[in-house]
Amino acid sequence: MKIKIINKSSHDLPHYETIASAGMDLRANITESISLKPMERAIVPTGLFLELPIGIEAQVRPRSGLAAKKGITVLNAPGTIDADYRGEVGVILINLSIEKFTIENGERIAQLVIAKHERAEWEAVEVLSETDRGEGGFGSTGVK
Fold first, then answer.
1. Nearest in space to 78 (alpha carbons), one of 17, 134, 26
2. What is the pTM of this model?
3. Where are the domains of the chain?
């Protein structure tokens, strides 16, 4: 699948690192570093603009290494970029650690996954079919 992209950053286009990678790294496109104190958040620009086909979304997800090593994650994970959005791709990062974290230009801050999605139509009914689980909610299928 080909996706139109405008790259106003000073970095290469996102790309898959391996043949089996699901995501491509997004890089910060900033003129000055951004420091995040603990529990502070910021929208970090990437310099990328996408034109996705209808039925396709781009998901902005955390980078596992950044989350595990530094406590930095994508606040609305996964963030969704809809097919009709034409603005710059921004990444909402939050610092969940107890230390200040500084984002530098070109730093890999998130990953982008391209995914197909379905559109649903609601069918209003009075009763739903029964299942073994029934109304069991959070944690109801775990080991007891």
1. 26
2. 0.88
3. 4-116
Over residues 105-138, the pLDDT tens digits come to 999 999 999 999 999 999 999 999 998 888 877 7
- Burial bucket for residue 24 (CB in 10 Å: 0-12, 13-18, 19+): middle
Give dist(CA 85, CA 78) in Å, integer: 16
66-120 pLDDT, tens digit per residue, is: 999 999 999 999 999 999 999 999 999 999 999 999 999 999 999 999 999 999 9
The answer to whether residues 8 and 47 touch, using CB atoms and an 8 Å cutoff, is: yes
Residue type, 83: A
Q: Decide yes or no: CATH 2.70.40.10 for domain 4-116.
A: yes
Query: Exposure of 36 by Cβ count < 10 A (0-12 exposed, 13-18 middle, 19+ buried)?
Result: buried
Cross-strand pairs, 55: none
Residue length of the chain: 144
